Amino acid sequence: MTYKNSALQQKPATPDYEAKAPAEKIIVGVDVFLHKHQLSASMLAERLKLLETAELELEMITNRGVKVWPDGFPETFCTDQWRCRFMLKAGLTQLGYGDIIRLLSLISANNLDVIKTENLCTFHGEPGFMLGQGL
Predict the structure, then answer these.
(1) pLDDT of residue 16
(2) Domain parsing of the chain, residue ranges
(3) What is the pLDDT along the chain (135 residues), one digit of tens a residue?
(4) What whole-number distance in Å separates Cα of residue 121 and Cα of residue 23?
(5) What is the pLDDT of residue 30?
(6) CB neighbours of residue 73 within 10 Å
(7) What are residue 127's DSSP bridge partners?
(8) Number of Cβ within a 10 Å radius of residue 91
(9) Are 100 and 28 in contact (CB under 8 A)?
(10) Cα–Cα separations (whole angstroms), residue 59 to 37, 39, 71, 78
(11) Which CATH number applies to 25-126?
(12) Helix, strand, coil shares of the chain as percentages rounded to 5?
């Protein structure tokens, strides 16, 4: 038996791939995830507001995906992990990595434990991130 010209041996033609132009990506904020126990959302916000930079301001704090600051419900059960959203201040158009590093340095210098960060970007002017529950 021979399989010289079988369909199994013939490779299908590979379609030409055309790369799309990259989206216009602009960093407009950063989510800083903190590990801090025995602290309320309002107490944490009070500390973080003092660390705002010329480029970034604290917009909200969530815990387990629920907005707890500002205007959170005091009865919300909170764990010791917080997402603190810092956004570009009004009138500014773009953040640089140095701006985020400066903020993280301030947070670290104030004995707050950074677990991770997520840069918040727009793509062609559309947010590429979730707004957060309650917004």
Answers:
(1) 80
(2) 25-126
(3) 666 666 666 666 777 888 888 889 999 999 999 998 888 999 999 999 999 999 999 999 999 999 999 988 888 898 999 999 999 999 999 999 999 999 999 999 999 999 999 999 999 999 999 887 654
(4) 11
(5) 98
(6) 9
(7) 122
(8) 5
(9) no
(10) 21, 18, 11, 18
(11) 3.30.70.1570
(12) 15, 35, 50
Q: How far apart are CA 33 and CA 44, in angstroms?
A: 12
Strand order in the sheet with 56-63: 66-69, 56-63, 81-88, 25-35, 113-123, 126-127
Distance CA 106, CA 57 (A): 13
Whether the model pTM is above 0.90:
no
Kindly state the tokens that stand for 82: 């917080």
- 63's tokens: 């815990």
Measured distance CA(127)–CA(58) in Å, rounded? 18
Q: In one letter, which amino acid is 35?
A: H
Dig out the tokens for 105 from the structure: 């340095």
